[in-house]
Structures are given as structure tokens and as C-alpha cells.
Amino acid sequence: MSCWSFWWRPEKRRPAYDSVQIVAGQFLEGIAYFSYDELRTATENFSTSNKIGRGGFGIVYKGKLRNGLRVAVKKLAVASKQGQHEFLAEINAIALVTHPNLVRLIGCCVEGTNRILVYEYLENNSLDRSLLGQKDTRIRLDWNKRSAICVGTAKGLAYLHEETVPHIVHRDIKASNILLDKSFNPKIGDFGLAKLFPDDITHISTRIAGTTGYLAPEYAVAGQLTMKADVYSFGILILEIVSGKSSSKADWGGSDKFLLEWAWELYERGSLLELVDTELDEYPEEEALRYMKVALFCTQGAARRRPSMSQVVDMLSRDIKLNEKQLTAPGYFQDSNRLGAGPTPSKKSDSGYQTSSEPITITHVRPR
């Protein structure tokens, strides 16, 4: 496959508050400091009726500030071992990352044991809820919207991987972490698991964290994290967007196959269009085929064979012929309780703005 480079200039955004805030003696540029009482008032005392998501690291509530601005308030779990210094350092890193396809951090709260992040509020919640959730939460997304979600998410990831300094690997790309604004533009959220990559480091050996079903096999087994782990997760996400089905459900083709397994089988049979969501009345067949083939390029078993995210953006955005001679079988993993059955089901959330699921241990790998 030939290589392409594709660059974006992030929009210059005016921070919600102009003044530089001082928190515990540290400067946070463009980030507002909120008191705990302010956020408690904004969320009506963190009312369960305002809960819009939850995960392994806390609960997210919708709220309204005194100036009328609607926000998403992530209240991290009290049991978190993260101290004030580490929390503020992480916020500083996130505050410098601005792109149209990334959720914007507005501010934070650091009082006693309270660690709270305040994000922009996105009207259409998460892709997981809008496309893959219960029938009463689903929104009918036509091909144009799905295509734009794929491309926009790819651009956000490419920015994290290639334009931020140091580079950032998200580590938890999945449908519940792709949030949709009122026009259904995608924004990548939840940087709770993100890792910073200095230019001179090729990989980081780390404790496995993320969501089962989206984890690249080399990361799930050896804990060696590279940007290609995000690429793998994004490939799974494309298949979910095109099919309208969760990657965690083992019922494809009337057998105990998972989404990636079934996609590869259909590809080998020349019947990949069978994967397309039956809810799509009209869609461009050649473009849908290209998107699914890009997903297979992203999920190849060998990480080095996967494209970069800037290459992925180019492949999705342009009507080009892919060099399928270079496409190899996908890699996937399974745990010791389900040998021969494919990937372990993902831990589901009840909405978007989800914090990441608990770390897992994978004990067995079977390449295709």
C-alpha cells in the first residue's frame, strides 16, 4: 500500500473563560476552576436524573452553569489513587489538545478528595447509544451521517497521533467514546486512559486498559502499546458503524462468530455487502465496500501492516482503489473461558460520556 500524508490545522478556539486560573499554585491556561458547590448546583446535587454515563472511573452528569452554558460533568471515583499533582498534570496535557473532532475540556474541580472534569455538552450523546443502543435511544443515521462520523473520528485520531507533541494514544476508542453534537459531527471523548508518546519512543509497556472487543491482540497479550492499537480499535468501530451492530455480540451468520470474524469470512467469500445495516435503505455500494475494506486493513494481525491514521483518512475520503494484495487476515483474541469462540464481549455502558471500563487480562490469542 502506498503511503499518504494528510494534515489538518485545528480550529483556534476561544476558551470558555479568558482568564488564566491558578489551582494549587499551578497555572492552567484556558481552563476554568469550579468549586464543588458550583458543580453540585449545576447538576442539581448530582441527581440521578441528570446522569448521562458511567464507567470504571466515575459517573458523568449533564449540568447547566450559572451563565447558562450546558456542560457534561465527570465526577471521578473517590477511590481513585490519582493525587492532585498528577490530576493537574493530566488536565494540562488535555487542555492543550484542541481539534474540531475532540471533545473540549472546559474546566475542573480539585477540592479535598473531589476530582471533577467539566466538558462541553453534546446534544446527541454517544454513537453507542444513538446507533447501537436500545431501540428507544436509537437515531436513524443515513449513510452520509455514518460516513461523516467515520471520517471525522479518523481525523481526530490522526491529530492525536501525528500533530500533538508529545503524541497521544487514546487507548479506548469505541462507540461509547464517540460523542455526537447537534449536527451529528463526531468528537472523541474520554481521555482517562490516554498515554503520551515522546518522539523517541516506539512503544510503551503498560498495564492493559481499555474495552474488550476493541483491543488489538498485541496490546491485549503483551501490554505493548503503540498507535497501531488505536488503529485496530478504529477498524472495529468502522465495522460497527457500517453494520449497525455491536462488535461484542456473537451471533453473526447464524453461528458463534463475532463481527470481525464474520466480516473477514464475508470478504473471503466476496459477499462483504451482506454486512451492511439493513436499516440503510440507500447507500453507495462501492463506498461502503471501501469503508469495510479499510476496516480490515486497520485490523490486520501484524501491527506493522496497519496504516497510519492519516493514511486511513485519505483512504476513507478519496475514491481510490485499495491494494488488496497487501491485505492480510485480521488478528483477534479470546479469553480462557471462551476458547474457540472469538473475542470476549465488551463491557457495555448505559450511555455516552462513559469513562473507560476496568482493566482486563487476556490469556489466549488465536490469529486468523
UniProtKB/TrEMBL annotation:
Highest rank taxon of the organism: Eukaryota
Protein name, as recorded: Uncharacterized protein
Organism: Melastoma candidum
